[in-house]
Design goal:
Elements (H helix, E strand, L loop, with lengths): L23 E4 L8 H15 L4 E7 L1 H12 L7 E5 L6 E8 H11 L3 H16 L10 H13 L5 H13 L10
Parallel strand pairs: 1-2, 2-4
Antiparallel strand pairs: 3-4
Helix pairs in contact: 1-4, 3-4, 4-5
Length: 181
């Protein structure tokens, strides 16, 4: 699981003018059991629960594209599951979220839930970053918020919770799940 990026994309299509108050969901890689309208509806519910204003663009794509975005905007030349790009001085636009469909599917298999649920978990995590939360520096505030929202939205273990659980499991010699998370 990665964090917030600074700088663009400001809409993966490169055209903020295409946004209204609605969300934009783009699938470059399909996810079993999840459609663009279903993910859009989830984003609307999650944003309301978070109290996040502004439109959001969600890109569900390949690990290769996430690696390129991660390298370009975070200086890390490796694929990751989710990246968030908060809008900078953009009225009516909260930011962009990029998700690797391949990593989401792999993690879903390892964790015993569906790829659709995993993409929703990653989306929730990204939305929290767009709302200003930062699990690397907030003394557990994002973790607690994500846990409450996960329950409210009917999702399985949250990203941060499962990393803590996996770290405990890994430290006592159990099987090590695939990477990255």
């Amino acid at each position: 699981m990665e964090g917030t990026c600074t700088g663009p994309p400001i809409c993966f299509l490169g055209a903020l003018s295409e946004f209204t108050a609605a969300e934009m969901v783009i699938f470059r890689k399909r996810v079993a059991g999840l459609s663009e309208p279903a993910l859009t509806a989830f984003v609307t519910r999650a944003k309301r629960a978070i109290r996040l204003g502004g439109a959001v663009a969600i890109l569900v794509t390949s690990s290769r594209e996430l690696q390129e975005l991660n390298r370009r905007f975070r200086g890390k030349n490796k694929p990751t599951d989710v990246l968030s790009f908060p809008a900078i001085d953009q009225t009516g636009f909260a930011g962009d979220i990029a998700i690797s469909a391949e990593i989401a599917a792999r993690n879903a298999r390892l964790l015993g839930h569906t790829p659709a649920e995993e993409v929703k978990l990653l989306t929730l995590h990204g939305l929290l970053h767009l709302a200003g939360y930062d699990h690397e520096h907030d003394q557990g505030e994002m973790t607690r918020k994500e846990r409450r929202l996960r329950t409210t939205l009917g999702l399985p273990l949250a990203l941060i919770e499962r990393q803590t659980t996996q770290a405990s499991t890994n430290s006592i010699g159990k099987r090590r799940p695939g990477k990255p998370l």
